[in-house]
Amino acid sequence: MRPSRPDRRAPGPGATRPSGQLAAHVAYFRELGVSGVSRDRVWRLRPTDPEPSPATAPEPVAAAQPEPCAAVAAGAPVELSMFDQVAALSAATAEERLRLIREELGDCTRCRLHGGRKTLVYGVGNPDAALMFVGEAPGRDEDLQGIPFVGRAGQLLTRIIEAIDLRRDDVYIANVIKCRPPDNRNPQPDEVRTCEPFLFAQIDAIRPRVIVAMGSFAARTLLRTEDAISRLRGRVFEFRGARLIPTFHPAFLLRSPDRKRDVWEDMKKVRSILQAG
Ligand code: SF4
Question: What's the CA gap between 223 and 30, in Å, rounded?
Answer without folding.
Answer: 32
